[in-house]
Amino acid sequence: MKLAKDILNETDGKICKHCLGRKLSKTIEGTNNIERADKVCDELDINLDDVDCVICDNIFNKLDDDLYEKIDAKINQLGVEFDTFLVGSQIPKDIRNRDDELSEKFNLNVETLKKEVNRLIGLGIWERYDKDAEFERQDIVFNIDLISEPKVNIQINPLYIEGKYNKLKRGIPQTKWPCSKCKGRGCEECNFTGKQYPESVEELISEHFLKLTKGREAKFHGAGREDIDVLMLGSGRPFVLEIKEPKIRNLDLPKLEAEINKINEGKTSYHNLHLCERPRKAEIKQSSPDAYKIYNAIVECDEAYDEDKLKGLLELGEINQQTPLRVLRRRTDMVRVKHVLDLSYEIINDKTFSMKIKTEGGLYIKELISGDEGRSQPNVSEILGVNAVCAQLDVLEVSEK
Prior knowledge:
Blueprint: H1 2-10, H2 17-23, H3 33-44, H4 65-78, E1 84-90, H5 93-105, H6 113-129, E2 132-133, E3 140-145, E4 151-156, E5 159-167, H7 201-213, E6 217-222, E7 231-244, H8 253-263, E8 268-276, H9 280-283, E9 292-301, E10 318-322, E11 335-349, E12 352-360, H10 365-370, E13 376-377, H11 380-384, E14 388-398
Parallel strand pairs: 1-2, 1-3, 7-14
Antiparallel strand pairs: 3-4, 5-7, 5-8, 6-7, 9-12, 9-14, 10-11, 10-13, 11-12
Helix pairs in contact: 2-3
């Protein structure tokens, strides 16, 4: 009780049970701070029920039914679904300073006032909604402003859906392209859509998720990308779809996957849709040393090639590839060293053949074939001694990261 008496003397007895119990949490047993303070009151025969607290200005009185009615009203206003939550609060700086100074004076390593406020509000939300507080990853965050009259704001955290996609039709970009003329503002050139192309792999899935989740915006994160004229076949390319501020989080993903694929039949398909956590959107973009891609290319030459020289393609290994001219405006100009891991070919006619090629991720296949004005060394054109171009390209496999 000596510490309790010292704190009461320091505050001239003007301290609420929350603040007194909190300072005694390491020295007096009890299930909560009120219980600890009650033990002191019983022992010293004092009453702290209606005291004007010089530490917190009785801020805990604001954690009443009116506050939870405001929380309930905000949840209903937004129509937000959640299973996990976190509480944050704004408390006047002078209150936080007084609380810290009292702890420092008595060398107390105890819970701060702000943490107790957040914990008590979280307990109230748990009791009313049977939802769990989660400190690492939560669906929503309640921001409670207690500086004057309590105000409630809700931060809705993104929803992340992972899967793989196939692109079955050429001419569809992976993500939305702003119109090159109006930069997305809308003009006659793009029929006032603001888009260079009418649809994308991203939009053909995101529009359905935005409608169902009532989200504000969607962002598509792919494990690399293929050119607009390239198909994505095989098991598909990994991606994460990020839905910002989703009001609805409980989705029947298998059902939704089937519906989206039926609507987009012949254009795109999406597989193994499942929820994931935020780090996955960065992880799928990271290139593992063991990552590879398999392509099928139709190679056309401007004149007949020597069939014997095709065997030289089988020797392709290390490729020194300077940033291709076609992407130079948006990529750093540098030489990248990549490797051909496996290659086979099949003759179509005296000017055309198909080539199946397995490479490290990041190797530009079109430039490997054409040579890109000497920026890709060695290259198919150089080995054959004729000018060659990639007439058609399909991605057959993208390895798991």
